[in-house]
Amino acid sequence: MKASIASKLDQLVDRLDEVTRLLSTEEATRDMESFRKLTREHAELTPVVEAFNAYRQCEADIATASELLDDPDMKAFAHEQIAEA
Fold first, then answer.
1. Mean pLDDT over residues 2-25, rounded?
2. What is the dihedral of CA 73, 78, 83, 85, to 10 degrees?
3. Distances from the Cα of 15 to the Cαs of 42, 56, 58, in angstroms?
4. Fewest CB atoms less than 10 Å from the CB: which of 39, 43, 61, 64?
């Protein structure tokens, strides 16, 4: 993945955390227009962030499995894990 794309996705992760935090405050419901915008943004960001987190988990799983390739007893398992990820 290009560094610029990963950077943008990291920013979206941070923004989702911020929006979630803003929605959990008491002030969020005082301005209904702002509340609607935040809930809409939250709904749009959530699937993107979930997919990015799943991608990062797959990368981590592949890295871990790749380390096991040097162990003859774990080689078959490592190949399975890499293919699965």
1. 96
2. 150
3. 9, 18, 22
4. 43
